[in-house]
C-alpha cells in the first residue's frame, strides 16, 4: 500500500488508520504509520534530525543528519514490515501473524525451516524501533520548540521524571479506542526498545561498586517498580482501555495479546522513576527489601530504565560570513555598530552573586577609549576592591559542590546553548564591541568574536567528553579549589575559552578580563548566564590586575592559573606561585597554563612561489595591526628573490592599522643598520594609526630579530642562497627565547623536510606554505614552545587535561590467605 499523507487519512472505528477506499491496516501498523508521519513532516524535519542524535543538538546542523540518522532507520524498518506483513492480515499479533505473508510462504516452500520464528522478532523490533524513535523524538522536539519560543512553554512542561505532560493530555483528548490503542502501543514499545539499547549501561553500573561512579552515571536509573502518584494518574486511562476493549471485543478483533500490551504500557508509564543524586544512599536500603521486591526492582533496572550517558553533538566549525558590499550580514553589522555607537559610553556593571549591580559614576571609575578615535570613551567600569575579590572567591567556592555534582550532560548543555547564542542572537553585537574597542575590521571580528568563540564552546564540550570516555579506568575528577583565569585584550574568544574548559569539568573559575576588552568579555559572560550557567560558577571581576591577582594568589584554594598575555607578566606570576609553594600556602601544587609572547618567522626558500608568499606575509604581519601573538615579525628572504618580494610588498594594498609603537619606528628610521622598505609613518592626531612597516636589516644580529613589538613592523634579512642550511641554526637561536609559530615557504620537498627537522623546537605551531596566523579550533591546536607558552595546546583535550585530578580506582575480588608471599615460605 502506498503511504498516504496525513490529510488523506482518518481514524476509523476498527482501530485502524486508512486511506479512503483502501484496505485497513490494523494493530501495530497504526504505530508504524504514526511514526512515519512524525518523521516525514517537513515542518519538523530539521529539528527532528538534530534531536534524534542528541537532546541538545545545533539547529543549524540538524538537517544534515536527517537522511542518515532518521529516515534511513525508519525507512529500513518500514520496508521490512511492508514485505513481511500482508495487507489483509486480520490481526498482526494474533492468529496468522507473518505466516500469512506471501513472502514468508515462498521462503518456507523453498525448504528453509523456522523462518516464522526468526522473522516474527525481527518484525517486532522494526516496529518497536519506529515507535521508540517517534516517542523519544517528539518529546525532545517539544522541549526544543519551547526553548526557542516557537510554542508556549506550557506545551513542553514535564514532570519530575522528564515525562511530557502534554503528551498524556493530547492522548486523552482523543478518547477513542483506536487512539488509546496506538498511544499505548507506542509508549510500551518505546520503553522496551530504549531499555535494550541501554543494557550495556546497567552492566557497567553493576560492575562498579564505587559511590562516585554511581553519582556520575546512575542519576537516571530506575529504583522502584511503581510510583504511586503516577499509578493514580494513569488509572483512568487503564480503565478506559479496558472498557473500550470490552465494548469492542466483537468488532475490533481485540485479543489477549492486545490486553497484555496495554498492561505493559501502563506499567512502564507508572513504574519508571528516576533516581536523584541525593537518593544514591538509598541504594543501601535496597538490600533490605524482600526477595520478591528486589526481583521486581532488578527486572525494571534491566528492562525499563532509560538510564545512560548522552553522546554530545559532533563539533563543527562555525561557517564564516564575508560581509561583501550590499550583503545582508554587512547591513546587520553596520546597524549593530551604529546602535552601539549611540550608546557610548557603555557602562560595565559589577557582578555580585551572578547579578548585575548598576553603579553610580565614581572618581575611581576606569575609562576605556576607542583606539581609532582617542577622543571617544568606549566604556566605563568601577574596579573591584580587594574585599570584593575575596568575597567573589568565597562565593565561587560555595558554588563548586553543586556545579561539580551536576551531570556532565547538563554542564555541556550550557556551553552548547552558549555557542548557539554566539552564532545567532549575539553575533553582531559581539562583533560591534570587538571592532570599536579592539580596532578590528569586519573579517578579524568575524573570525574572533563570532566564529572562534562558538568553536571553542562546541569543541571544548567534545574534548571534555573525550576525557570522560576513558572511564572507568581512571576517574577524571576536576581539580579541587578554583582556577584563576586571566584573559587578554586582543581576542574576545580567548576569554570564553579560558573559562569554558575548566568549567566543563566541574571546576569553578574566577575570571579577570583585560580592562581593554572588558565590555566584549562582559557580553560573553552575559551569554553564558543566559545559556544557564549558575551564579558564582564563573565570577566576572573587572579591576586593577595587581589587586585582583594579589588576593587570588594569597588564597589556599587556588588550584590553577589559566593565562593568556605577555611572557614577562607570566614570569612574574610563576615566581609568585613558586614563593607560595615554598611557604606552603596552597593545599595543592597550583598548575600554570599559559599562552604568551612570540617572535614568529617566515622563511622563504629559493624555490618558493614569491607572489603567494607575499600575500601570506602581509596577512600574517599586518592583519589587526600585528597585534596577534602569532603574527609574523621577522622574515628571511633569499638574495635572488628579494627584489621581487620587496617590490610586490610595496604594491600590496592594506587598510589603516594602529598601535603604540611610534618610538620603535622613530629609532628604526634613523638606524644605519636598517633600510626602510615600506611604511614608516604614523599619525596620532585622531587615533593610533601606523602604516604597515618593513625594514631590511643588514646584519642578522640586529635587536629587532629578538624584540617582541606587538605591532605592524616586520624586519627582513636577505641571505645568500647557498647559506640556507647554515641560516636554519641562526633562526633557531633568534626570536628572543620565544618559539610560538613559524613557517617555511618552498616547493622543494628536501628543503621543507630539512627546515621541519632543524627547526623542530623553534615553533610550537610549524606551518608549511601557510602564514603563521589563523589556527582554527578543532583543526590545529595552538601552543608555543620555549618561553612562548606552557604548550598545553589550546583547542585540544590536552589543555583540559591540565585541569583534571585523575583518580585511579582498584578493587580486588579475592581474599588473602596469608600475609607471607610464596617466596617467604
TrEMBL record:
At the top level, the lineage of the source is Eukaryota
Q: What is this protein called?
A: L-glutamate gamma-semialdehyde dehydrogenase
Query: PANTHER family given for it?
Result: DELTA-1-PYRROLINE-5-CARBOXYLATE DEHYDROGENASE 1, ISOFORM A-RELATED, DELTA-1-PYRROLINE-5-CARBOXYLATE DEHYDROGENASE 2, ISOFORM A-RELATED
InterPro entries, sorted? AA-permease/SLC12A_dom, Ald_DH/histidinol_DH, Ald_DH_C, Ald_DH_CS_CYS, Ald_DH_N, Aldehyde_DH_dom, Proline_metab_enzyme
One GO cellular component assignment for this chain's record is: membrane
On whether NAD is a keyword of this UniProt record, the answer is: yes
What is the uppermost EC class here?
A: oxidoreductase
Q: Which reaction does it catalyse?
A: L-glutamate 5-semialdehyde + NAD(+) + H2O = L-glutamate + NADH + 2 H(+)
Q: Which UniProt keywords apply?
A: Membrane, NAD, Oxidoreductase, Transmembrane, Transmembrane helix
Q: What's its EC?
A: 1.2.1.88
Topology with regard to the membrane? Multi-pass membrane protein
Record-annotated Aldehyde dehydrogenase domain positions = 367-807
Q: Does the keyword RNA-binding apply?
A: no
Pathway(s):
Amino-acid degradation; L-proline degradation into L-glutamate; L-glutamate from L-proline: step 2/2
Q: Which residues form a coiled coil?
A: none
Instruction: Tell me the ranges covered by the Amino acid permease/ SLC12A domain, including all copies.
Output: 45-170
One of its GO biological process terms is: transmembrane transport
Organism listed in the record: Cladophialophora bantiana (strain ATCC 10958 / CBS 173.52 / CDC B-1940 / NIH 8579)
Subcellular location, principal: membrane
Amino acid at each position: 500500500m502506498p503511504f498516504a499523507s496525513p490529510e488523506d487519512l482518518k481514524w476509523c472505528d476498527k482501530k485502524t488508520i486508512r486511506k479512503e477506499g483502501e484496505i485497513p491496516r490494523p494493530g501495530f501498523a497504526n504505530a508504524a504509520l504514526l511514526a512515519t508521519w512524525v518523521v516525514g513532516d517537513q515542518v519538523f524535519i530539521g529539528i527532528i534530525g538534530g534531536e534524534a542524535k542528541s537532546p541538545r543538538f545545533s539547529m543549524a546542523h540538524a538537517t544534515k543528519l536527517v537522511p542518515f540518522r532518521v529516515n534511513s532507520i525508519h525507512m529500513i524498518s518500514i520496508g521490512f514490515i511492508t514485505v513481511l506483513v500482508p495487507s489483509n492480515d486480520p490481526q498482526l499479533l494474533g492468529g496468522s501473524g507473518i505466516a500469512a505473508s506471501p513472502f514468508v510462504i515462498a521462503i518456507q516452500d523453498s525448504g528453509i525451516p523456522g523462518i516464522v520464528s526468526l522473522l516474527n522478532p525481527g518484525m517486532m523490533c522494526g516496529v518497536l524501533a519506529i515507535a521508540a524513535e517517534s516517542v523519544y523524538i517528539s518529546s525532545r522536539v517539544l522541549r526544543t520548540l519551547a526553548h526557542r519560543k516557537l510554542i508556549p512553554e506550557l506545551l513542553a512542561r514535564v514532570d519530575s521524571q522528564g515525562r511530557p505532560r502534554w503528551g498524556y493530555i493530547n492522548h486523552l483528548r482523543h478518547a477513542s479506542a483506536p487512539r488509546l490503542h496506538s498511544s499505548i502501543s507506542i509508549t510500551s514499545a518505546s520503553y522496551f526498545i530504549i531499555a535494550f539499547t541501554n543494557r550495556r549501561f546497567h552492566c557497567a553500573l553493576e560492575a562498579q561498586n564505587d559511590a562516585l561512579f554511581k553519582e556520575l552515571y546512575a542519576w537516571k536509573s530506575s529504583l522502584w517498580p511503581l510510583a504511586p502518584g503516577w499509578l493514580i494518574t494513569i488509572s483512568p486511562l487503564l480503565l478506559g482501555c479496558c472498557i473500550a476493549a470490552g465494548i469492542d471485543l466483537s468488532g475490533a478483533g481485540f485479543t489477549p495479546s492486545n490486553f497484555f500490551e496495554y498492561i505493559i504500557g501502563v506499567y512502564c508509564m507508572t513504574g519508571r522513576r528516576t533516581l536523584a543524586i541525593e537518593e544514591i544512599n538509598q541504594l543501601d536500603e535496597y538490600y533490605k527489601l524482600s526477595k520478591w521486591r528486589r526481583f521486581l526492582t532488578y527486572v525494571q533496572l534491566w528492562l525499563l530504565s532509560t538510564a545512560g550517558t548522552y553522546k554530545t553533538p559532533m563539533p563543527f566549525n562555525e561557517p564564516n560570513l564575508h560581509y561583501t558590499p550590499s550583503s545582508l550580514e554587512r547591513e546587520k553589522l553596520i546597524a549593530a555598530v551604529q546602535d552601539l555607537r549611540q550608546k557610548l559610553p557603555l557602562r560595565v556593571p559589577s557582578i555580585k552573586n551572578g547579578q548585575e549591580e548598576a553603579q553610580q559614576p565614581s572618581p575611581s571609575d576606569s575609562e576605556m577609549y576607542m583606539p581609532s578615535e582617542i577622543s571617544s570613551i568606549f566604556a566605563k567600569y568601577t574596579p573591584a576592591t580587594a574585599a570584593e575579590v575575596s568575597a567573589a572567591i568565597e562565593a565561587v567556592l560555595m558554588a563548586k559542590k553543586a556545579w561539580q555534582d551536576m551531570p556532565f550532560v547538563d554542564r555541556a548543555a550550557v556551553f552548547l546553548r552558549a555557542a548557539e547564542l554566539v552564532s545567532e542572537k549575539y553575533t553582531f553585537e559581539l562583533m560591534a564591541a570587538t571592532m570599536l574597542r579592539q580596532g578590528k575590521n569586519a573579517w578579524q571580528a568575524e573570525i574572533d568574536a563570532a566564529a572562534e568563540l562558538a568553536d571553542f564552546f562546541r569543541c571544548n564540550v567534545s574534548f571534555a567528553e573525550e576525557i570522560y570516555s576513558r572511564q572507568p579506568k581512571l576517574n577524571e575528577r576536576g581539580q579541587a579549589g578554583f582556577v584563576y583565569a586571566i584573559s587578554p585584550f586582543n581576542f574576545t574568544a580567548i576569554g570564553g575559552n579560558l573559562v569554558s574548559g575548566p568549567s566543563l569539568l566541574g571546576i569553578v573559575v574566577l575570571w579577570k578580563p583585560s580592562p581593554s576588552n572588558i565590555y566584549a568579555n562582559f557580553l560573553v559572560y552575559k551569554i553564558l548566564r543566559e545559556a544557564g550557567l549558575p551564579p558564582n560558577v564563573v565570577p566576572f571581576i573587572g579591576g586593577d590586575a595587581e589587586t585582583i591577582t594579589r588576593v587570588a594568589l594569597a588564597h589556599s584554594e587556588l588550584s590553577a592559573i589559566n593565562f593568556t598575555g605577555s611572557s614577562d607578566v607570566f614570569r612574574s606570576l610563576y615566581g609568585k606561585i613558586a614563593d607560595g609553594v615554598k611557604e606552603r600556602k596552597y593545599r595543592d601544587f597550583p598548575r600554570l597554563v599559559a599562552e604568551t609572547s612570540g617572535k614568529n618567522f617566515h622563511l622563504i626558500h629559493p624555490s618558493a612561489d614569491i607572489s603567494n608568499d607575499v600575500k601570506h606575509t602581509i596577512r600574517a604581519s599586518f592583519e589587526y595591526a600585528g597585534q596577534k601573538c602569532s603574527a609574523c615579525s621577522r622574515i628571511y628572504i633569499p638574495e635572488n628573490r628579494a627584489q621581487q618580494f620587496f617590490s610586490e610588498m610595496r604594491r600590496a594594498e592594506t587598510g589603516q592599522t594602529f598601535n603604540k609603537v611610534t618610538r620603535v619606528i622613530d629609532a628604526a628610521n634613523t638606524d644605519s643598520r636598517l633600510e626602510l622598505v615600506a611604511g614608516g609613518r604614523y599619525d596620532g592626531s585622531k587615533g593610533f594609526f601606523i602604516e604597515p612597516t618593513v625594514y631590511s636589516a643588514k646584519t642578522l644580529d640586529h635587536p629587532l630579530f629578538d624584540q617582541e613589538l606587538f605591532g605592524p613592523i616586520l624586519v627582513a634579512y636577505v641571505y645568500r642562497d647557498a647559506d640556507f642550511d647554515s641560516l636554519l641554526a641562526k633562526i633557531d637561536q633568534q626570536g628572543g627565547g620565544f618559539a610560538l609559530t613559524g613557517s617555511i615557504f618552498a616547493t622543494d620537498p628536501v628543503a621543507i623536510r630539512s627546515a621541519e627537522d632543524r627547526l623542530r623546537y623553534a615553533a610550537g605551531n610549524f606551518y608549511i606554505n601557510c602564514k603563521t596566523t589563523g589556527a582554527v579550533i578543532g583543526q590545529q591546536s595552538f601552543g608555543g614552545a620555549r618561553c612562548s607558552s606552557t604548550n598545553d595546546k589550546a583547542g585540544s583535550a590536552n589543555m583540559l587535561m591540565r585541569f583534571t585530578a585523575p583518580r585511579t580506582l582498584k578493587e580486588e575480588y579475592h581474599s588473602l590467605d596469608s600475609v607471607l608471599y610464596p617466596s617467604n615460605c
